[in-house]
């Protein structure tokens, strides 16, 4: 017997989102219905609405979420009814070639719910990142539920489900920042701010935040930036760009040990590439659009050495990382709560997209 709840859908490319009734079927053997308590408004949801990720409309939006397990399928063993969980979009299979090589963070066959949620007329919904949690309840695979300390505010804990974990993991897992190293982070939105906080947590001694927004640079200091660079008036590309020159000036003329591009446009990619010290490490966690191309002289790629790595979901393992960072948050050692700029109602998601584009928030969070 299906359950009817309210949810936010994107019905067509660029169209305003709608609050509608959706039907959740009884869970399959390994599925779970979660009562959603809070969901962050992520740029990925806007990208789904605007057709930048796929065109499988209508989408049930929302994916950065915390909630309570409400109903479980007959074969579920991973969670129990009443568990407090953060939802993740990497429920590893344990059987694919990545998992068998001991690299489950790259799992190529992650699990989702076995059944589809629908509109009341039977139209199947595509849940954002396999979650779809701008809704009072949602249906996911049991492996998408990660139990965490229930003392954490759902509005804060749920943000680990995507953007915050992406930036934090880019610093800690992908870049493997070591104590005393220098780091430059390009872009101070939620992901970039999480990378800055992650660099501080890892023990970086010099953390340089780069952005075109003076407000965000002031916020970056609260998350751990030791220096800030307003790049809005700085010109040039490549080795001699003014951004790269300023970063070298802050690092004894060498450049940083690590650079993190949290924007995903080619201008910031170029700045991150050339702001590294020789043999420095660069991580790209900002998601590029489908038409972007990387264009650097091959001799520069070869001659600078080091490594260039993309960060998928911050190379995280939810079962390992979510509980750990929630605990660090509760110990006041990781500022998860600072990412919550405002709490809003489910019917305010469209307005939250406008607020996001204006740069006035790190995260708007829907609280149910």
From TrEMBL:
Pfam family, one: ADH_N
CDD domains for this protein: Zn_ADH_class_III
EC annotation from Swiss-Prot or TrEMBL: 1.1.1.306
Any one GO biological process: formaldehyde catabolic process
One term under GO cellular component: cytosol
Cofactors that this protein relies on: Zn(2+)
Leading EC class: oxidoreductase
Domain Enoyl reductase (ER) positions: 14-368
Keywords: Metal-binding, NAD, Oxidoreductase, Zinc
Xref: InterPro entries: ADH-like_C, ADH-like_N, ADH_Zn_CS, ER, GroES-like_sf, MycoS_dep_FDH, NAD(P)-bd_dom_sf
Top-rank lineage group of the source organism: Bacteria
Gene Ontology molecular function: mycothiol-dependent formaldehyde dehydrogenase activity; S-(hydroxymethyl)glutathione dehydrogenase [NAD(P)+] activity; zinc ion binding
Entry's family note: Belongs to the zinc-containing alcohol dehydrogenase family.
Protein name stated in the entry: S-(Hydroxymethyl)mycothiol dehydrogenase
Species this protein is from: Corynebacterium occultum
